[in-house]
Amino acid sequence: GPCTECSCSSGREPEKDPSHTKKKENGERLCVPKIFFGTRTHKQITQISRELKRTAYSCVPMTILSSRDYTCIHPVVSNSSNRNEMCVEMLEGKHGRSCSYYHGVHKLCEHHALQPAANVYQAWDIEDLVGLGRKLRACPYFAARELMMGADIVFCPYNYLLDPQIRDSMDINLKDQVVILDEAHNIEDCARESVSFGVTEGQLRAAREELDVMVNHSIRQEHHEPLRAVCCSLI
Fold it and tell me: Where is this region: Disordered (predicted)?
């Protein structure tokens, strides 16, 4: 059946992208899995991409997924304390402004420095991508995500693979793919973090007050009363 995550479903013609498709005898196309390589920190990705450069696989199509903290180059958004929200607002054009860097994503994705070609292409790291993005005035964050479609190897921090919310927001589908976790003894901590949530006493009190209003006005009491009880017990 059709697969969602590899390039045979990305609208490319199979002749142009033989790396991900192989013909089965009955004419169906098989998908070659991607390799998702998870590391603990962004810094380790830089080290690993340097190592990749030194191997015979330096010209393999790749991408590096990282947060906007590392890859946003918009002069206002990148200096904001809440880059994610501000980026989304920009893309939705909420304040009448849009992000010109986002509209230049294709320029970055299609640039020869990121397109695998014999003897020319080299494995790259986040700094290379950001440097090229600045030069082309194109968004490295969304370009890296776009490049995932045709990539054979995808580098990212652990939590992109372990945290279901991040997986979802980054459109990562691990079904039938190869997953490599570097320094896997850190996985337990990362898994714990991804299902943990920090909340202050002030936030709990504010939530309780809002729930009081809901209950007192008979708004979906059966849902709000148990929540209020949880807030009270935690406080």
Answer: 1-25
